[in-house]
Automatic annotation (TrEMBL):
This is Uncharacterized protein. The lineage of its organism: Eukaryota, Fungi, Dikarya, Basidiomycota, Agaricomycotina. InterPro entries: KDZ. Pfam families: KDZ. PANTHER family: CXC1-LIKE CYSTEINE CLUSTER ASSOCIATED WITH KDZ TRANSPOSASES DOMAIN-CONTAINING PROTEIN (PTHR33096:SF1), CXC2 DOMAIN-CONTAINING PROTEIN (PTHR33096). It comes from Coprinopsis cinerea (strain Okayama-7 / 130 / ATCC MYA-4618 / FGSC 9003).
Length: 189
């Protein structure tokens, strides 16, 4: 068996592939049954939210103009591309944020799925926006069950924004080098 090439002691191709995505309808559906085995506890989500807020002092992003466009340390694409992606996602998320939190405590589910489309873990979303701490708690849960040398491919429609935040604010320290980031392009929201 030939193993993938290694860079800095870590594999450059994933040993496993996962997908993070959300579903807003499932939280409102009384027929949805969720196994306790895949459910992330509320306390774990709260801890992840506190972890992210402690690491990230604010939400300001660096805006660039085309004449001073550059690549941020650790990123593979220029700031202009990251900002365009963020602007596009923010506009789409603001449209979805009209979902009422007065009628439902949960606004959706964020799930971590394996390559075979099987749910590994689910986190109840209680905010109107797609906050990064939901993805963080799912990844922390995943890595708590994997050997330290395991390299994980992560597909996420806004993976570039999560990777950017992880680098900028030192999130997922100790695990970041084990993630091969990818963008899932399954749907346009």
């Amino acid at each position: 068996m030939t193993l993938p090439p290694r860079e800095n002691g870590l594999m450059t191709t994933p040993m496993v592939t996962t997908l993070v995505d959300i579903c807003r309808i499932a939280a409102c559906c009384a027929l949805v049954e969720r196994s306790a085995l895949v459910q992330i506890f509320f306390e774990e989500v709260v801890d992840a939210e506190a972890y992210v807020h402690a690491k990230r002092p604010g939400t300001a992003t660096s805006k660039s103009n085309p004449q001073t466009d550059f690549k941020e340390p650790g990123m593979k694409v220029p700031v202009s591309a990251l900002n365009d992606c963020l602007d596009s996602f923010t506009a789409a998320d603001e449209q979805r944020s009209k979902a009422s939190t007065t009628l439902f405590a949960d606004t959706g589910l964020m799930g971590l799925l394996c390559l075979h489309n099987r749910v590994l873990w689910l986190a109840n979303m209680t905010s109107t926006g797609e906050r990064q701490f939901y993805a963080i708690v799912l990844l922390l849960k995943l890595f708590s069950h994997l050997p330290p040398s395991m390299t994980v491919g992560l597909l996420y429609d806004i993976g570039c924004q999560l990777e950017r935040s992880c680098i900028k604010w030192d999130l997922l320290d100790g695990y970041r080098d084990c993630i091969v980031w990818g963008i899932s392009v399954l749907e346009k929201k």
